[in-house]
Design a protein that fits this description.
The chain contains eight helices and nine strands. It has helices at residues 19-29, 57-68, 84-96, 121-129, 140-147, 155-166, 211-224, 229-245; strands at residues 5-13, 33-45, 48-54, 75-78, 102-104, 135-136, 172-175, 184-191, 194-201. Helices cover 36% and strands 22% of the residues. It has a six-stranded mixed β-sheet. It has one domain: UDP-N-acetylmuramoyl-L-alanine:D-glutamate ligase. The protein is α/β, with parallel strands linked by helices and 266 residues long.
């Protein structure tokens, strides 16, 4: 039997709650072998980001060549790409190795509020990478930035923004409602066939560090195992909701703590 392999192309979180570290934990928790292409280093903890060191594009490219020339990759998750040249390097690498099962999380702001994407990189992301994605997974503020619009306040506005994001070229858009209000957190998956609604009861906790990274990497993991996109999103949302619900069992840091990636085992 072939071992499912997913690759995360993202930034490193020195506190372990988001980015590459959250992605690899998620892959492991869901039974997928995880490899990585590190695009940036962050000095970060549960209270915020204090420094960012971008990995040079030529070294990002070297990582891509090393991983994809050897491993039989069945899904790719893309997270923090803070600089235009790195975005272009990643797009070129994905094309070179014929990768199509791409989950793109357009990471722009950390849970602490710190900006992770250079403003000049947004247009490059729209132009060269979003059209390559199987699915993009923006939260409400990220969707607004990508469209140059106000943040969606209700599901009707989310549906309208999802359709506009589809016009940028991805095969599907998962617009996430975690930043919204109401008893349920509602995510909407839009593709050429219509819109699928995913709802889960909100969990009262401050431990939200890495939630977006975890959801997108869980989707990639499920796709790597052979699920179709709708069932992958459904399974990923169940996993993330349980990881958030169990997060208060952890005592990590004094700010926004991480979700509990290994809640089924610890």
């Amino acid at each position: 039997m072939t071992t499912p392999i997913a690759v995360t192309m993202a930034g490193s979180d020195s506190s372990g709650g988001a980015g590459i570290q959250a992605d690899l934990k998620t892959f492991s928790a869901l039974g997928v072998y995880g490899a990585s292409v590190i695009t940036a280093l962050t000095a970060q903890n549960t209270r915020g980001v204090t420094a960012i060191h971008d990995v040079p594009p030529d070294f990002v490219n070297a990582q891509i060549d090393a991983v994809f020339s050897d491993l039989k990759v069945t899904a790719v998750k893309i997270g923090m790409l803070s600089q235009p040249r790195v975005i272009e390097t990643v797009a070129d690498g994905l094309a070179r190795f014929n990768q199509t099962k791409i989950v793109l999380d357009p990471v722009m702001v950390a849970a602490s509020g710190d900006r992770l994407l250079a403003p000049e990189a947004v247009e490059v992301l729209r132009r060269v990478l979003i059209p390559r994605a199987l699915v993009i997974t923006p939260n409400l503020p990220e969707a607004a930035v990508l469209l140059g619009a106000d943040i969606a306040k209700d599901e009707d506005a989310m549906r309208a923004q999802a359709q506009k994001l589809l016009a940028l070229g991805p095969r599907a858009v998962l617009i996430k409602g975690g930043h919204g209000s109401g008893e349920d957190s509602v995510d909407l998956l839009a593709d050429a066939g219509g819109v699928t609604r995913f709802a889960a009861r909100r969990v009262a906790t401050d431990n939200t560090h890495g939630t977006g990274c975890t959801l997108s990497s869980a989707i990639a993991a499920e796709i790597a195992k052979g699920r179709d996109l709708v069932s992958a999103v459904r399974a990923a949302k169940v996993y993330l909701t349980a990881a958030i619900a169990a997060s208060d069992k952890l005592r990590i840091g004094s700010g926004h703590g991480p979700v509990h990636h290994f809640h089924l085992w610890w």
